[in-house]
Specification:
Blueprint: E1 10-13, E2 23-31, E3 40-45, E4 55-58, E5 64-69, E6 72-80, E7 83-95, E8 100-106, E9 117-122, E10 133-134, E11 136-137, E12 143-148, E13 153-161, E14 178-181, E15 187-192, E16 197-202, E17 215-218, H1 221-248, H2 257-270, H3 274-286, H4 299-308, H5 322-330, H6 333-342, H7 346-362, H8 366-379, H9 384-392, H10 423-426, E18 430-436, H11 441-457, E19 462-468, H12 473-479, E20 489-492, H13 500-504, E21 512-516, E22 522-525, H14 531-541
Parallel strand pairs: 2-8, 18-19, 19-20
Antiparallel strand pairs: 1-6, 2-5, 3-4, 3-6, 6-7, 8-17, 9-10, 9-13, 11-12, 12-16, 13-15, 14-15, 18-21, 21-22
């Protein structure tokens, strides 16, 4: 179980003629409290590429909007000049021919009641916060600056400070000839210069006051039902992980995968709307379980799912990885190949291919894994799946069984760690490298097992090296003052997913445990060192 921090809201578009029609999306976008906005937009993106650009639609002066989308899943975000984007992360909509309707309200950009200082970033300094220029405070409470430039116009944004406001995000200025969307939820103020100088004044009094809470709600019944199913999935997942953590801690778990599957199966069978029935079937496949022996999956019902949902169906865009769960339950590998061939979504195709690549890698079928990897990199190079595969399944990756551990040099977190932590410093010992973070739920769920094996093997020339993917080393220090003491070696590599540790250990998700022998060779990793298999694996090697 890997930890992924992706928060989205979906629009799903489908139709009664095999998803052949587009879907009309319409609604009302205003400020919280109902006031219309001077400039506002709706931004639509998809998951087909890591470089996907949003398609932007204008909101009318009365707050209404309407446009048409191809059937399938889309991500949507709403923005307005002087207002914070809603939701903070794009929400998903599912289009299927039936009209999708929304009612959206935006809250004003946050700003302190008393503004102490204002900084400005512009295209002159590439909108770099570190190069932000301090504006001069005037007696009337405004802030001003002059920028010398040969350009006839420039774009700029401001960072506002005061009270508890930290100026951690930029907003558009109050002086502008027009505005441009910055691609991240905010706007840039565009202003003309004169005689090589652009004079800019920021007036805090012109910022709108918040008159309510931001919201984005569906008003059509179909989309409400889609959202309700998605919320149930989230609640079911949370229930499972709570039970999973309790199981690892030896506490009562109050979770039965069989009962959980039966509940959703009954909902799917009783659903009369074909498209909601398919979503219920995906919900069934997403029900978590502890092991294959206790999964509760009904193979016959899974066969029904694969018969009901065609490989070309856009519904798989909700979670393409569920295709592999269904196929594994019934052994229908041809279905996965059909999805790659028949589904029109590169996102779905690449994620299903990634599942096939993962299985070939685990089965140690090097020839097949290399074939799938080559196809991934040639056919879907700009997908999220390709980025993940490059770190996790590259046949020529450095972090795999039999290879020496890449050379690293990290500072220890503990005060008594006097030297750099390197393979040379740890040579002669069995080392379990634990890539983790305090914010990672699956990582925390592994801690009871880690404490158990540490006590069992610590006197057998064995050490644990926990490499933190937290934002600050202090996060680890605070965490260890709580329930889990983690009495072994700790280090921190700044940068989270872009850290040196992430690059060296080819980390695309955590936890990612790695076991190296006294000579620094990798002997086991990933699933062999997780949960109930961890102790068994160590017993094979550490004696």
């Amino acid at each position: 179980m890997k930890s992924f921090l992706i928060v989205t809201v979906l629009i799903f578009c489908c139709s009664n003629t095999l998803f052949s029609q587009n879907t009309t999306v319409s609604g009302m976008l205003t400020a919280a409290g109902g006031k219309t906005l001077s400039i506002a937009h709706v931004h639509i993106t998809n998951s087909n590429s890591i470089k996907a650009k949003a398609v932007t639609y204008d909101v009318n002066s009365d707050g209404t909007f309407t446009f048409s989308l191809p059937n399938g899943w889309h991500r949507v975000q709403f923005s307005g000049v002087d207002y914070a984007p809603t939701p903070s992360f794009p929400m998903e909509i599912y289009c299927c021919g039936e009209p999708v309707k929304l009612n959206v309200q935006l809250a004003a950009n946050s700003a302190p009641k008393v503004v102490d200082s204002v900084k400005i970033v512009s295209e002159i300094n590439d909108y770099n916060f570190a190069k932000a220029m301090l504006m001069t405070k005037q007696k009337d409470g405004t802030f001003s600056t002059e920028i010398k430039t040969d350009k006839p116009i420039i774009g700029y944004q401001v960072l506002v400070y005061g009270g508890d406001q930290k100026g951690e995000h930029s907003i558009n200025g109050t002086m502008s000839d027009h505005y441009e969307y910055d691609g991240g939820g905010d706007y840039r103020s565009i202003i003309r210069g004169k005689n090589g100088v652009v004079k800019i004044v920021f007036d805090p009094k012109k910022l709108p006051e918040n008159s309510g809470t931001a919201s984005a709600e569906f008003t059509d019944e179909f989309s409400k039902s889609v959202k309700a199913i998605a919320n149930e999935e989230t609640a079911d997942r949370q229930e499972f992980f709570t039970a999973y953590s309790n199981r690892k801690a030896g506490k009562p778990e109050h979770y039965n995968p069989v009962t959980a599957h039966e509940k959703v199966q009954n909902l799917a069978i009783s659903e009369t709307n074909q498209y909601l029935k398919e979503l219920r079937m995906l919900q069934y496949l997403s029900v978590n379980f502890f092991s294959k022996d206790t999964s509760g999956l009904d193979a016959d019902f899974v066969k029904t799912i694969l018969t009901t949902i065609q490989p070309s169906s856009p519904v798989w865009g909700h979670n393409p990885r569920l295709v592999s769960i269904a196929v594994e339950a019934v052994g229908d590998n041809e279905y996965m190949k059909r999805v790659i061939k028949e589904n029109s979504s590169p996102y779905v195709q690449s994620e299903v291919l990634n599942s096939m690549l993962e299985k070939a890698t685990k089965d140690k079928n090097d020839q097949l894994a290399r074939e799938y990897y080559k196809k991934m990199m040639s056919d879907y190079p700009e997908t999220y799946a390709a980025r993940y595969a490059e770190k996790a399944f590259n046949p020529d990756r450095k972090v795999k069984q039999g290879n020496p551990i890449p050379n690293f040099s990290f500072d220890g977190i503990e005060e008594n760690t006097g030297s750099k932590l390197t393979p040379a410093e740890l040579k002669g010992k069995w080392v379990l490298i634990d890539n983790w973070a305090t914010w990672c739920g699956p990582c925390i769920a592994e801690l009871p097992a880690l404490h158990k094996i540490y006590e069992k093997f610590k006197d057998k020339n064995f050490v644990v090296l926990s490499v933190s993917f937290d934002r600050e080393a202090s996060d680890v220090t605070k965490f260890r003052k709580g329930k889990f003491k983690m009495p072994w070696i700790h280090t921190f590599s700044e940068g989270v997913w872009e850290s040196e540790a992430a690059k060296l250990f080819e980390v695309s998700g955590i936890p990612k445990p790695i076991l190296i022998d006294p000579n620094g060779k990798i002997v086991a990793l990933e699933e062999e060192l997780r949960s109930d298999t961890l102790e068994k694996t160590l017993e094979r090697f550490v004696r």
